[in-house]
Amino acid sequence: MKIKKLNSLFQNNLFVFVLSLLISVVIWLLVVINVSPQTTRVIKDVKVTIDDTVPSQFGLEVFGESEFVVDVTIKGKKYQISTGNLSADDIVVTAVTTNVDAPGFRTLQLRAEPVSENASYTISSVSAKTIDVYFDTAKTVQFVVEPNIITDGFPVVEDGFTCGEISLSEPSVVITGPSTQVNRIEKVVADCVLDKSLNSNLSLETAIVPLDDKNKSDFDYLSMSVERTVVAIPVLRTKTVNTAVNFKNIPKNYVASPLKYKISPAKETFNIFVDEYEKATSYDVGTIDFKTLSPTNNRFVFSSDKLPVAEGGAKEFIVTVDMSGFSQEYISVSQDKIKVNNSGKLDYTISDYPNSVVIVGPDSELSGITKDNIYLEIDLSQVEAEEGETVVIPALITVESDTCWVYGTYDIEITLQ
To answer: What is the enclosing helix (H) or strand (E) of 340?
Structure first.
């Protein structure tokens, strides 16, 4: 019965056609797999891996170009090396570094291998046999950037003007790179090229440039924390004006009606910034704190060392404040007038505080000041101390008055519990 059915199938032309087709496909696959000839294929852009095993033992690393690709030619059966079966990720190309034990350029041999140990293809060739790589130890140094004003032989400023202290928006730079290169850096400059002498202030953005001892900048592989800076060149002009002083910690009544004073010399010639020249009628030679001012201490001397006094000017300025009609008295302090800022919730006791302070003021006003007008304040928020330790803290002492002030500075002693 089965034989008859099988015979009937073979008598069916469609069945015979399909069966023949299947057998043909199977035979074709067997031939392709077992009899297929060897062929070649080029795999492009295979990444080169630089072996750092040996260089790292000497503290060396790659600087400059470090990413390389090559084309690899492989040989194998067509179906085995087709694009569907094989890609660049299946091949590893290694730059051999066994000879890298010192800084410098090294020519590294390339070795190409299949990733799989059981690969059924062979590598015929690589588009490059070697690569050149620079090795060195890394070094990081911070340098001060020096302004370098370049002119064609003419002065930086016109006659009658003075060049002030030149400043940079980026006064320093951190440079990282190969030690051999970094060690060659003698200085770092910001070149500012002028086409004429200045009679006004100038701000110019310019590049930051490292130089060697021959003023050359032929460095490779350096990286800088900043590459540009703004060079500010202030220009000053001499002018003779009145001398003056500032006051600070001023009682309310003396803001609108300042105390009278005399300065010797009363006039002086200063180097004034050109943008302030026209409106400048006086120049402050110093600052007087009311905490340092009293009938017995009303003479102050300010050196001209840090002032823009023109050449040949005064070496010092003597200021005498008119304290006529002012007196000073010791006035006692009440402990209940002490205010403590204790945001950290410290346990403490006040070990010592000033029993009295010196109050200065007009004779007519001073007689009305009592201990009820004196306030002390201390701040414990920044205190760092251990239990049982005694610390001394500056006290802010004020007097409830628009005309009187506290003379001197005072401390309060506290002990942490």
So the answer is: strand 338-341
**Cβ contacts of 378 within 8 Å, gap of 6 or more:** 338, 339, 340, 341, 393, 394, 395, 396, 412, 414
Query: What sign does the dihedral 294-297-299-300 (CA atoms) show?
Result: negative
**243 three-state secondary structure:** strand
Query: What is the C-alpha separation between 414 and 347, in angstroms, rounded?
Result: 10
Average pLDDT over residues 64-81: 90
High-pLDDT (> 70) share of the chain, %: 92
DSSP letter for 194, please: -
β partners of residue 168: 231
Q: Are 357 and 397 in contact (CB under 8 A)?
A: yes
pTM metric for this prediction: 0.66
What's the confidence (pLDDT) of residue 100?
95
pLDDT band at 297 (very low <50, low <70, confident <90, very high): very high
Half-sphere exposure for 147 (CA within 13 Å, toward CB): 23
Angle made by CA atoms 40, 42, 43, in degrees to the nearest 5: 130
Check residue 379 and give its pLDDT.
86
Cβ atoms 313, 304 nearer than 8 A: yes
Q: How far apart are CA 204 and CA 68, in angstroms?
A: 40
155-159, 300-304, 380-384: which has the minimum mean pLDDT? Answer: 380-384
Q: Name the DSSP class of 304.
A: S
Cβ atoms < 10 Å from Cβ of 405: 23
pLDDT at 343 over 90: no
In terms of Cα–Cα distance, which of 6, 4, 91 is closest to 41?
Answer: 91
Is there a contact between 96 and 51 (Cβ–Cβ < 8 Å)? yes
> What value does the mean pLDDT of the chain take?
90
C-alpha separations of 267 from 245, 257, 288 in Å: 12, 22, 19
Q: CA torsion 146→152→153→155, rounded to 10°?
A: -60
Other beta carbons within 10 angstroms of residue 84's beta carbon come to 7
